[in-house]
Each structure stands twice: as C-alpha cells, then as structure tokens.
Predict the structure.
Amino acid sequence: MKKATIIIPTYNEKDNIKSLVEGIFKNVSALPNWMVDVVIVDSDSPDGTTELVESLIPSFPHLHLIRTKKEGLGKAYIEGFKIAIEKLQPFVLFEMDADHSHDPTTLPAFLKQIEKGADFVIGSRYIKGGSIPQDWGIDRKIFSIGANLFVRLGFMRLKITDWTSGFRAIKAWIIKDSLAYVNTYSGYVFQVALLDHAISKGARVSEVPINFVDRKAGVSKINSIQYIFQTFWYVLSHSSFIKFIIVGLLGFVVDFSFAYAFINSLKIPKASANMLSAEVAIIFNFFINNFWSFRHKKIEGGFIAYAQKLLLFNLVSLGSVLIQGGGLYLLLTFMGDKIFALLPGVSLSSWIVYKIGIISFIIIPYSYVLYNKVVWKK
Ligand SMILES: Nc1nc2c(ncn2[C@@H]2O[C@H](COP(=O)(O)OP(=O)(O)OP(=O)(O)O)[C@@H](O)[C@H]2O)c(=O)[nH]1
Ligand SMILES: [Mg+2]
C-alpha cells in the first residue's frame, strides 16, 4: 500500500466541503494499492467551514484539518504540503479545489498515471476527453485558453496543455524539492511556478482529462486581474525562450550599429565591416545568452570551456546563415521573385516575406534547439 494525501485549501466553503469529502472517500476507499488521506487547509473561514470539518472528523478517520491565517492559495498549499509530508509521509500529494469543480471520480485515473511512472499528473481541461464549462462566456473561454497558450508557447513546452489547472497529483519528492522555490509565490501563480520548477528538476509530467465544472455554491476567490499580471510576469521573467528571442533582436541591433560605425567612422570596406559586425553580434549574443537566457545552464570550466562553446556557437550561427541563404535561393527559384500586396497600399518584396518566414519557422526553432542541446547542454 502506498500513501496518497489530498490537500484541499478552503476559504468559506461550508456548502461544499461535506459532500466533497464524502465523494472523495467513496471513490478512493476501495482502491487496492492506495491508502488515501484528505487534509483540509482552512484559512480561518468566517462562515463555519472549520467547525463543519471538525464535526466530520469522527466519521472519517483519514480526514485531517489544518488551520492557517488567510494568506492566499499558495501559502495555504505550502502549509498543507509541509505538515502532510511531516505527519503522514505520503508518496504522492494531490491538489484539489473544494468547490466541486474537480470531480473525485477521476482521482483513480491520476493514481494510475503515478503507477505507470509519472511524477507530476495534471488534470487537463484541454486534452481529448477534457472540457471547460459550455456556459462560460466567450471572454472567459478566450482568457482561459489564451493564458494556457501563452504559457505553453512562452516556455516552449507545447505538450503540457493545462498549466493553470489546480487539480494535480505530485510525488512528494518534487514537493519537498520545490517548497523553498515556490514559497515566494503566494497567489494562484504558485501553480505555474510549481510546475515550472518540477520540470526543471526533471519530473516526468503526464496529463489526464478532466471535465471542469463551475462551482455551484459559495463565491469565487480569484482576483483575475492580479492573476493575469502575475502569470504574464512569471513567464516573461522565467522563460529562456522569450529571453532568447529578445537577445536575438538585440543582436540584430548590435549587428547594424557596429556595421554602421565600422563603415562610417572607421572607413572599413562594407563587406568586411559587415562580417566584423556579425561576429561582434555573435559574441554579444553568446555572452548575454550565457548570463541571462540560459543562466540556469551557465557554462562552467573556465577559459577553455568558454572558447570551445563560443566556437560551437559560431558554428550554429554559421548554420543559420547557410539556412537563410539556401532557403532564400530555393524560395526565389521555385516561388518566384515578386511583390506581395499585403494590404491596399502596402506591399513587400518577396525576399523580405521569405526571410521573415525562414527566420520565424526555421531559424528560431533550429537555434533554440541547438543552443539547448549542444551549446548549453546540461
Ligand atoms: N485556505 C485557503 N483556500 C483558498 C484561498 N483562496 C482560495 N482558496 C480555495 O482555493 C480553491 C480555489 O478557489 P476558487 O475561488 O474556487 O478559485 P477558482 O476555482 O480559481 O475560481 P472559480 O472558477 O471562480 O471557482 C477553493 O477551494 C477555495 O476555497 C485562501 O486564501 N486560503
Ligand atoms: Mg473554483
């Protein structure tokens, strides 16, 4: 028998918690391989949630209550994780909402994934078989889908479809490893931070479909504006992909500025000046990527290591140059050299359109993958 502990944060959930606790134990009591505890982390709810949970404990020997101050969802989870790990020593911990948005009949599916070797199982609303409520307004649908798409693209982790889901099963070693990190994220962004950190620790992530339903009783506690801002900022400040794009754009500016200065101030012939400025930009990008975009994989080993990696970085850049040249040659030959009319009065030469296409769809993925797998390989 392995132990699983379901952590449920509550704030004013007196109309939900009793039926939820009953539903959970009904679905997990007979599982052959698992012994399941439920830990309610209540933040001093004024509506009587605490007293209600206390009154349920005699009927459910595996139900526990932790009382905390009201400091947001993240802090409630962290408190719950710490105490549950210390007192119950579970193998896996669940995150689950109290408001019946998360269906307890799917709990066994999460545990199946854990048995198959997953370290972090996400209940996803966006994979086949999962869903968000049909009656959500279009604004809410767009926000939810858009936020997830933004995080997926920002982190270049397209396989994970639901970053913001609050229904998850996570092995205890990941939680222990993440507590210090997530401690600074108190609100709902804590969920994104925890998953991001788990991935950086090598967690095997898998997803199970969930049908998310709206709360029937009680009121929502989420502060959407704050949540959007925090999530946006978290991704911007933690995504090596976005930083890599920014460095690429800066490199472009460096290249042009140096070419201009070499030609006009130092009177270097144009072709040589551009070769020199391209190399300046490459060296600039190499160092900024090393100390910023890929800081977590910074090159170690002194001068020789840096020289070797800089050489590799130059080779990858040379690859980009050849891809651009070859791609443009093929496109111009087969698609023709023409003028594209984009909008009335706005037209572009075909080579510019082709170049933008090659950079967006080939050069960016090519460089990002090679930087990760070759230059800043862990
Ligand atoms: N302990 C504790 N629980 C909280 C706090 N804020 C929210 N919760 C709980 O976290 C869970 C999710 O909160 P909800 O208000 O349902 O937020 P949501 O599910 O993102 O939003 P809705 O879709 O509107 O329900 C619920 O079980 C809440 O009771 C808090 O500060 N402390
Ligand atoms: Mg809810």
